[in-house]
Specification:
- By secondary structure, the protein is an all-beta fold.
- It contains no helices and eleven strands.
- The strands form two sheets. Strands 2, 4, 5, 6, 9, 10 and 11 form a seven-stranded mixed sheet that branches.
- A hairpin with a 2-residue loop joins strand 5 and strand 6 (55-58).
- The radius of gyration is 13 Å and the shape is globular.
- It starts with a strand and ends with a strand.
- The mean pLDDT is 90.
Length: 115
């Protein structure tokens, strides 16, 4: 089994920053394979950032450069640093891990960007 627990969300003003954390435990073979998704109201869940082959990749086009994924292998924790936040970034942010054909998700952490 895999357990993923997100934290660090909250209410932030436009232009502000947040750092999300995802603590992973259980049958995690590689913390590098944990990635971040988000789901805004009325929209599909979308991949935000991942680490592939040791390279960090941001998938949300307009957010390239604003979001940075990183990891702490000792703590088995993956982070998502988000800067210059915009109201469009408002969403529930989830960490995700695929083991074989099974997708594991955390419960998510709400990020609200509003003045």
């Amino acid at each position: 089994q895999v357990q993923l627990v997100e934290s660090g969300g909250g209410l932030v003003q436009p232009g502000g920053s947040l750092r999300l954390s995802c603590a992973a435990s259980g049958s995690i073979y590689s913390i590098n394979a944990v990635d971040w998704y988000r789901q805004a109201p009325g929209k599909q869940r979308a991949l935000v950032a991942a680490i592939i082959g040791g390279v960090t990749i941001n998938y949300v086009g307009s957010e390239k450069g604003r979001f940075t994924i990183s990891r702490d292998n000792v703590k088995n924790t993956v982070y998502l640093q988000m800067n210059s936040l915009k109201p469009d970034d408002t969403a529930v942010y989830y960490c995700h891990y695929r083991l074989g054909s099974i997708d594991y998700w955390g419960r998510g952490t709400q990020v609200t960007v509003s003045s």
